[in-house]
Write a structure and sequence with these properties.
This protein has twelve helices and 15 strands. The chain is of the alpha+beta class. It has two domains: about 160 residues, 3-Layer(aba) Sandwich (Aminopeptidase), CATH 3.40.630.30; about 170 residues, Aminopeptidase (3-Layer(aba) Sandwich). A hairpin with a 5-residue loop joins strand 6 and strand 7. Helix 1 crosses helix 2 and helix 9 runs antiparallel to helix 10. The longest helix is centred in the first third of the chain and has 17 residues.
């Protein structure tokens, strides 16, 4: 029985990983409503600026068993001097024919749009989920971490993709003995922490965006986020926020640091299969009562204050707050192997590697 390729089927795009992967693989989907929002050409600011994109699903016997999306991030190409298309959400059963037709569709898209390289996973940009898991299979992941079984990198390599840009995710056992020694913030020098709470959410998150754009400006593949893009990605975070965990570091009236740490949603998402239904309030209440895991989505310090110990102080404050609040595990989303400063922070923190990831790329004639 042959594999059917379909384009633009949103429902199948959401369903594909549930058919492709076993529960033991540990895959947890974003909410169905979030997937629909991401693919909406009217609601997602990435698409409304004119970014070309397309997505496909592979069906065998009528069931979607694979998916992929491709787009050309023109701002990224202009900033970094590349001519590449990006692929993302490549989730596929261990099915060579399904993988081939999906990746061929993304390759044809790349060629049609005049690009010479296809790179991914980006779900959907470098400031969201990135990478393909290549190690640490079976380790329980946190919100915003990519999970796939071992056959996915094999399928990519079988279709001419090569791995590059190695990354790691990390985990900290908050119940373990040990203190993260860091120089405290000097209030006398004008520094103070502003918590990200409901009443100040919009203002604090805009400050966090400015800090992120400044602090990450020199990072490979980074593209500054517009206010619309940042609100689109982070706007629904308010509903799950624990104000004890996230904060913006101020120097006088200027935001100079930010750390965004949220409760891990993966247990709730797995229990609901990432769908909103009649039982969702029950599952959410149980999750709120039992949550003991949290994840740092990002942390940043403005570039002119690098090397002053601010990031260490911010991490130390967050770890202390997590312990007081009763959290026992902390996940940290991907850090590139080339980011020596952040890797030193993980070592000092006592965090251990959780997953190994790589980007994959293919030259397009």
């Amino acid at each position: 029985m042959t594999v059917e390729l379909r384009q633009g089927d949103v429902a199948a795009f959401f369903d594909a990983p549930f058919n492709a992967y076993d529960q033991a693989d540990g895959y947890v989907s974003p909410l169905r409503t979030d997937i629909v929002r991401m693919l909406d050409p009217v609601r997602n600011p990435l698409w409304t600026t004119g970014t070309p994109f397309a997505f496909w699903t592979a069906h065998r016997a009528g069931r979607p068993i694979g998916r992929v999306i491709a787009h050309v991030h023109r701002q990224s190409n202009a900033r970094h001097g590349t001519e590449r298309a990006q692929f993302g959400f490549f989730d596929c059963a261990d099915d060579t024919e399904a993988a081939r037709i999906l990746l061929d569709a993304a390759t044809d898209f790349t060629r049609t749009h005049g690009q010479n390289e296809l790179v991914g996973n980006f779900n959907l940009t470098a400031m969201q989920q990135a990478g393909v898991m290549t190690g640490g299979f079976g380790a329980r992941a946190y919100t915003d971490m990519i999970v796939n079984p071992p056959h996915v990198p094999r399928l990519l390599e079988a279709n001419g993709f090569a791995r590059f840009f190695p990354m790691q995710t990390f985990e900290l056992d908050l119940a373990a003995e040990g203190d993260f020694a860091a120089r405290p913030i000097d209030a006398a020098a004008g520094f103070s922490f502003a918590p990200i709470a409901r009443g100040s959410f919009a203002a604090r998150m805009e400050e966090a965006r400015l800090v992120l754009n400044d602090g990450f400006a020199g990072n490979p593949m980074f593209v500054p986020l517009t206010a619309d893009e940042f609100r689109f990605q982070a706007g629904e975070m308010m509903s799950i926020l624990d104000p004890r965990l996230s904060s913006v570091l101020m120097h006088g009236d200027r935001p100079v640091g930010a750390i965004i740490c949220i409760p891990d949603l993966n247990g709730f998402l797995a229990a609901t299969r990432s769908r909103i239904g009649l039982a969702t309030p029950f599952h959410y209440l149980r999750y709120r009562l039992r949550r003991r895991r949290a994840v740092i989505i990002f942390y940043s310090v403005v570039s002119d204050m690098h090397g002053q110990g601010l990031m260490g102080a911010m991490l130390a404050r967050t770890v202390a707050a997590l312990r007081v609040a009763g959290y026992t595990k902390l996940g940290i989303t991907w850090i590139a192997d080339g980011n020596a400063a952040s890797l030193r922070q993980m070592e000092r923190l006592g965090a251990t590697p959780l997953h190994r990831l790589h980007l994959f790329r293919k030259a397009i004639a």
